[in-house]
Amino acid sequence: MILSLIAVLFGGFVLHLYNVYWLRPERLRRRLRTQGIVGPPPSFPFGNVAEMKRIELDERRARMDWGTTMHNYDSAVIPCFDLWRKEYGPLYMYTTGNTVTLYVARPDLVKEINLCTSLDLGKPMYLRKVHEPLFGNGILKSNGPIWAHQRKIISPQFYMDKVKAMVDLMVDSTEQMLRSWEDSLNSNGGGVTEIRVDDDLRILSSNVISRACFGSNHTKGNAIFLKLRSLQASMAKHNHLSLSPLWRSDQGHWKVSREIQSSILKLVQEHRESSAAMEKNLLQAMLESADGDLDPDVAEHFIVDNFKSIYFAGHETTAVVASWCLMLLALHPDWQTRARAEVVEICGGRPPNADSLNKLKTLTMIIQETLRLYPPGVSVAREALQDTKLGDIYLPKGANLFIPISTLHHDILIWGTDADSFNPLRFARGVSGACDVPHAYVPFGVGARSCLGQYFAMTEMKVVLSLLLAAFEFELSPSYRHSPVLRMIVQPEFGVSLLVKRCVHCDD
Q1: What are residue 383's DSSP bridge partners?
Q2: Known binder of ligand: residue 213?
Q3: Which of 59, 154, 205, 278 has the fewest Cβ atoms surrounding its Cβ within 10 A?
Q4: Which phi and psi angles does 80 have, rounded to 5°?
Q5: In the record, which residues are listed under signal peptide (predicted)?
Q6: Residues in CB range of 350: below 8 A, 6 or more apart
């Protein structure tokens, strides 16, 4: 009887796996096939994962050091999607585990997704699961009415008037970094020094977002963010190739997550009991919103999960884009000179303010072109929470979307034959005049869920780069190795090392 029971249980388990890994996804694939959508044939039990890993390994073996003018990172970061696009076109399906995903690089469909305001398109369940220790159910991963309510509370804190009030703290934080670079130059005889700028920019960006969030308690906020940075680095190794319905987060991730939660709640309590509660920082604004709209248990998770989300979105991505921007300016000294001349003319040797930042047109074009060439997010991912129609496609409930940002940003049919080249002038008439399909420019995401902190990020990058350009000149270090790599966002694998010297006009 025991053996019979074991056989029944084992048979039931096998049938369950067959249903989860094959029958359910096959039903989704069948509905897509009837619309003429094909793709690489999946195999039981993990779909196309084995082929994806093989393609990735082959690319890694074949790829030598990149040339610094090779700005299209698709073949290195997402080689399977790049290869399949050449075979199946800009619209095809693939399967990872039991997740069926529609790859969408058709500009007309991207436009439809961009214009979609329905809550029926949300963040994929598999990503919510793998990223739960880092983001919880915060605004980056929640769906439906919960997400809509969170965005309603948080988005006003990133409106233009609120961001303008943060310019001074951005300037102050950047000037601290400038002084450390000056010290490095002085210790090197005042000539040229080599600086790993991405490391310093991460520290700077962390300080900015910490001060914006916690005000006078930003030192303790920085300590929390260091733990978040460690957790993010640990979780970055998990991607769509390592997931299945049986995947569970590492216990070590949850341990660090609980430590971060405890630290944030302790800081919140200290804030409530101190005179800092009179400050108009993001923590105070979120506390006021949470206390008024949410019950205590929900409010606690709301505060913790969203500070984690805001840290990641407002710190890591901004620092990485600024690093890529300095790399490109070092490669293109003519644009570096033009941007510096603009900063000197408009700011006149004074720190930038909200008004002068709006006049930095050349610098804005350079940042926009950097975001085109090196968008920090490799893709936009969505899941159909209900049957959804997008243009001429019916997306069944449970199917996912994968929108390859860098592929769209390098498409010669959209941007012209110089799509892989650094040409900020394409943005001289703004995004709407930069290409034939402005909806295909999506560095901050698409649709209703586009990044609510994009004005904050653009303002911070303008402050940082304008101050750096006014003080220093940059050349690419001989030790720099160009190798974009995906670690949740696309980063320089070996950092960005630049040769830094004082700007000529600063010695006049």
Answers
A1: 122, 400
A2: no
A3: 278
A4: -65, -40
A5: none
A6: none
Output phi, psi for 128, to 5 deg. Answer: -60, -40
Q: How many CB atoms lie within 10 A of CB 272?
A: 13
Q: Can you say whether the dihedral through the CA atoms of 324, 328, 331, 335 is positive or negative? A: negative
* Contact yes or no for 45/22 (Cβ under 8 A): yes
How many residues are recorded in the chain?
A: 508
The rounded distance, in Å, linking the Cα atoms of 250 and 64 is: 33
* Cβ-proximal residues to 314 (8 Å cutoff; 6+ apart), any chain: 205, 208, 209, 212, 453, 456, 457
Task: Identify each DSSP E strand in 81-234 by its residue range.
Answer: 91-96, 99-104, 121-122, 192-196
Host H or E run for residue 230? helix 218-235
What is the token pair recorded at 152? Answer: 């309603």
The tokens of 496 are what? 């960005």
Bridge partners of residue 99, in order along the sequence = 96
| Contact assessment for residue 431 and residue 372, using Cβ atoms and an 8 Å cutoff | no
What does the block give as tokens for 217?
Answer: 């308690």
6 vs 30: CA distance, rounded Å:
34
Q: Are 21 and 44 in contact (CB under 8 A)?
A: yes
Structure tokens, 11: 């048979």
ω before 45 within 30° of 0 (cis)? Answer: yes
pLDDT of 34 reads 97
Rounded CA separation 449/114 (Å): 9
Q: What is the pLDDT of residue 508?
A: 47
Q: 447, 121 in Cβ contact below 8 A?
A: yes
Tokens of 360: 């930095």
Calpha distance 421→419 (Å, rounded):
6
Q: Is the distance from CB of 377 to CB of 405 less than 8 angstroms?
A: yes
Say how many Å lie between the first and final Cα of the chain, rounded: 94
Where do the DSSP E strands lie in 421-496? 472-476, 484-487, 489-492
The pLDDT score that the predictor gives to residue 69 is 58
Alpha-carbon torsion 242, 247, 252, 253, what sign? Answer: positive
Q: What's phi and psi for 65, nearest 5 deg? A: -60, 140
